[in-house]
Structure prediction request, 1030 residues.
Amino acid sequence: MKKGYRNWGPPLLLIAPTIIVIGIFVYGLIGANVAVSMSNRHSLVPGTEFVGLDNYFALFAEERFIHSLQNLGVFTVFFIGGTMLFGFLWAWMLDKGVTAEGVFRSVFLFPMAISFVASGVVWRWLLNSAEGDRASGLNRIFEIMGLDFLQNAWWSEPGWGMAAIALPAIWQLAGYVMALFLSGFRGIPMELREAARMDGATEWKLYRYVIFPQLSPVALSALIIVGHMSLKVFDLIMAITKSIYQTEVPATYLWVALTANDYAKSATIATILLLFVAVLIVPYLVYTARSERKQR
Amino acid sequence: MRKPLSIIAGAVALGLVLAGCSSNTGTTDPDNASQVEVFTWWASGSEKVGLDALVKVFEEQNPDAEFINASVAGGAGSNAKAALASRLEANNPPDTFQAHAGAELTDYINAGQLQDLSSFFQENGLTDVFPESLIERITVDGAIYSVPSNIHRANVVWANTQVLKDAGIDPMKAPADIDAWLVDLKKLKDAGVETPLALGTEWTQMQLFENVLIADLGAEGYSGLWTGDTAWDSAGVEAAIAHYGELLEYTNSDFAGLDWDAATQILLDGNAAYNVMGDWAESAFQQAGWTYDNEYTTWATPGTDGVFDFLADSFTLSVGAPHEAAALGWLKTISSAEGQKAFNLAKGSIPARTDTVATDYPAYQQTAIKSFGEDTVVSSLAHGAAASIAWSGDISSAIGKFGADRDGASLLSGLVAASDKAQG
Amino acid sequence: MSVSTEAQKTPRVSSNSEMPGETALRNRKRLSRTMKYVFLVLFMIVVLMPVYVLIVTSLKPPQDVNPATSWGLPVRWPWEPALEGGPTGFDNWALAWNALSASIGRTFLLAIPAALIASFLGAMNGFVLARWRFPYADIVFTVILFGMFIPYQAIMTPLVQMKTTLGLPSDISTLLIVHVIYGLPICTLIFRNYYAGIPHELMEASRMDGAGMLRTFGSIVLPLSLPGFVVTIIWQFTSAWNDFLFALFLSNQNEGPVSLALNNLAQGAQLANYGAAMAGALLASLPTLIVYIVLGKYFIGGLMSGSVKS
Prediction:
């Protein structure tokens, strides 16, 4: 391609509105947020003073914030693990030609269409932690099925309880990951599979050397999408438990700080969240940009 | 793809039809002096019925006024508070907004966002009809910033009479203090009631804890916690924590996951004998078709007899309210005898005014009206009357943590730290 | 694109190949096939469980609603009250419909344009970024894309300030602008990846100068873009429909979308009416459900031709 403004001027002009709008509404507002996080706006009173990184140090010294990070960690591991596992499993089962594939696919995909405002009440019931006579929700089902040993306190359990909160999140997004994997499976040329079979490859080797490598870009983008949703998880927890200590994650802590008019603290948590997301996303963006350049 | 396209066209048409069906009210116009934008979290249920009743009175008293309902529900008012915080920050306040009366308003007052309503109280004779102890609780440095519309009581034990009788306990006789109550709880447990005391999520735990604090410290000692006159690291608070920990032993293990109504349901199902809850619980018993002093009864939480742990919804007048005159009309309506009656009969709370005719109200409310007139009034912590939003948030978090780890020392240090932070 | 159609045409591999030990193999196949269906149906039941609870609860009068009996079918007909003169199961639906119908209409007027406009702009951006290598195109792309990952709670306060300063109304028109803006990154991403997968020759065919580019976009690229549009429209429609946070901060319940009305219905009262809340949840979810069912099969196809290539 020839260089020169005649070539890249017009495209730049086409994309300029987007760049300007994103510049203001994403980066401008992020900037405003970072500025507040470095001020002492801990109430509605607008006395502003630059305090540097004090709010950040104060936050990391808080047992409560560390606790919310631990919760987020547990949630993220189970959420990503669960969506990837079920997403892959469903796609794998549907890929090989299934009667009524459309029905299964729609059912697995549909929870994505429901907002957490809507599904929160039900999941609150399903994850009710009462056992025995008063059991309801999933614990009741376990009791009916004679699987009493499976009854547990769900998210009320200190420590690993956040894994239970991941259940509705998995319910909602595993279908999307399935769709991604399914499109990945369908994108693998049949000739590749056949060639491998001709060479006498076992089923395992076929997956190990042909299918998994072909799926890895899909897996990566699924991982990124699910991962950043996990770091930002908010409405799910608000819908199921409201903002309480036991299930507190940074995003709900941010909300509590905002309702208490502690603008500086909420801005600080927001910036930390943003940094987390950046740590996850930027290497991915760089990686994809680089691998594309290689292809070209 | 033709099918999806025609579906889109159909959906747009449907959208237009549905949206067209709605009345065209609801747009605020700063230049239209007859409008008043009221920001509340009463969005459905009996609160909505009460609000509608109030609006009806308002429109009768102010025939030209247009009421604009800006309700934001959810998260026990937290959605409303967050949305409000951003509007105030942007200098775009609603004319009047709902807030719990008392310390929850501190932030807004300090930031100069509320107008002093003392003269409004004088002009309308409210200082005479509202009880003195209530006026005292809502006065900050000689000024009053909000008009209470309704009063709730937070130190009420709701008891299932049948469960108590079965265990050989007289349901009409309240235990004298927490220790006596614990004896009864043990008796119930020994009689096979596994979870004699029903409990719910974090704020209901906070409410139970505040009840224990009042019982152990007395009204004066408890009120002193919020003014700095009572030390948080005192023996009394430590004793209250021990009591609270013992009470938790008699509760349902799943309390963290239950909203208040699910906790009350345990009582209704006969699996619990007691539930400490504000008097909005009355609506749950009404809905179940139970009658007072028959299937259920109430008394003040043991050790708090003679104390009225109050919380009130109230309305403010914002600085820079675009429709100030109409907003004052709204405040006048909610403080009038007629407005308070219309609202409270529907919502199931009691009026803030003392010139109430008690017999107009159902059985439970009559007891509350009587106590409100006679008892020492203290401010509820769990419902924003006692501490600022940030402070009660810190306390709530410490109590939630205790619910999981039962570490009394950590709760005490958390409470002390929260108080140090809030009181400087 | 070409790859995918070929893959579908190619017959499945071992279906008609002759091999020794065929019967045993076929038996094993049949067994594993049956197992697969058993598992698929089991998973389907698990996924549908919450919907079952939504439906049965919405048909119970308040007196019969209790977490402990949430799995049970209603114990009376939905037109029969539990208490004399009390509310019935159908009253839940009437209540929900009255509370939500107007806002459902407004949400259509919000979500459809939001999806179409953001998709169109995203297609344009994606085309430019995929096909026109101007200096630092990758960096521009990365900078745009990062916008889709910000936690929106972080920017609400300054955003409300901006809205007030500009004097924008508290209704769906403001939300429309916001959803288009914050939908741009993901639409751009999807279309960029999608166009990267379309063979060069197809587009290089016509000589492109400044004016030619738009013509190419309109006459050659757009008609090829339907699968991409299905993905972005589904995504944008769903997120605009289900969004609560922007709605909470930038609109009010008289002029805002259905998520606000549903939230007020579900959480607005101290004594929650779960039956009405669940009826409302079902009503509010219907449009997105229909979108998924109608466009679902195109969705996979669109994903296939797009994101896989990234």
User: Anything to note?
Assistant: The first strand of chain B starts at residue 35 and ends at 40.
